[in-house]
Amino acid sequence: MLNFHNVCSVPSSFWLTGIPGLESLHIWLSIPFGSMYLVAVVGNVTILAVVRVERSLHQPMYFFLCMLAAIDLVLSTSTMPKLLGIFWFGAGDIGLDACLGQMFFIHCFATVESGIFLAMAFDRYVAICNPLRHSMVLTNAAVGRLGLVSLLRGVLYIGPLPLMIRLRLPLYKAHVISHSYCEHMAVVALTCGDSRVNNIYGLSIGFLVLILDSVAIAASYVMIFRAVMGLATPEARLKTLGTCGSHICAILIFYVPIAVSSLIHRFGRCVPPPVHTLLANFYLLIPPILNPIVYAVRTKPIRERLLQILRIERKIS
């Protein structure tokens, strides 16, 4: 049994409310959320399959895109099945260790995704500013190492968060999390002890990932634009910038929702809880939905391969 009294105790589990204030609409909310999750899964699996099958796409840019698709699948799957369970069956109960595990996967792979965007910006920088060395610098082994470094960075940055909660803050004043998943600050807010260290560490990691990665990506694109402006003709400039268009769209899709959600969580005291929780879910759903669409529409080799598959299926049917 869950203990709902306002006393400090060691919980065996928590209760996730879903979208606080909109409990009566949960069954209706499951329709758009379930549809978006399905689109995210199908889109990212399609990207992985197309790159796997089409040997001409076995290049650094598309390997990074596959990493992005895999990360998006992890991010969306870390939250959506549980959220849909809450919507459909009222299954809000989640064990303490499962809650901390969910927290780790969400924040870790969001950090990994930021690292992959940084690696993709480096790939575009080398491809445009030093094209003759691109194949030597961005080898398959180098791409794999960049992906591994991004993963290790995510684990090292985020690993201490659940451990600090587990070891430093074992007592909780409430067991009801007014959220749809185990978000770090939502869990820390329920603890009885001094959570300043956790808050400072969380803010520091947010600064390192969100601010420094954004600055590094912006710096790479400043150098790219300078190189592009030095090209002889407008057609060459547009063609070169076109290779960066999908990446820029994906960066905006990722960083804008997460920045808005973080600012609202930290400083938006007047924002209603349902709005905050919906935004927190959207920043985990929007990138997995839109990234495959952006790359399928704007990347010619992927678009052509998808159209070829659709034509073959139409002939067969």
Automatic annotation (TrEMBL):
Q: What is its main location?
A: membrane
Tell me the CDD domains matching this sequence. Answer: 7tmA_OR52M-like
Keyword Zinc among UniProt keywords: no
Q: Which residues cross the membrane?
A: 25-50, 62-91, 103-122, 143-165, 200-228, 240-258, 278-297
Q: Which residues form the G-protein coupled receptors family 1 profile domain?
A: 43-295
Name any one Pfam family assigned in the record: 7tm_4
Organism the protein comes from:
Sapajus apella
Q: Name one GO cellular component term.
A: plasma membrane
Task: Give the matching Gene3D superfamilies.
Answer: Rhodopsin 7-helix transmembrane proteins (1.20.1070.10)
Tell me which domain of life the UniProt entry assigns to the organism this sequence originates from: Eukaryota
Q: Which gene encodes it?
A: LOC116536966
Q: Which GO terms describe its molecular function?
A: G protein-coupled receptor activity; olfactory receptor activity
Q: Which UniProt keywords apply?
A: G-protein coupled receptor, Membrane, Olfaction, Receptor, Sensory transduction, Transducer, Transmembrane, Transmembrane helix
Compartments (UniProt record): Membrane
Membrane-topology annotation of the record: Multi-pass membrane protein
What is the protein name given in its UniProt record?
Answer: Olfactory receptor 52M1
- What does this protein's UniProt record list under function? Odorant receptor.
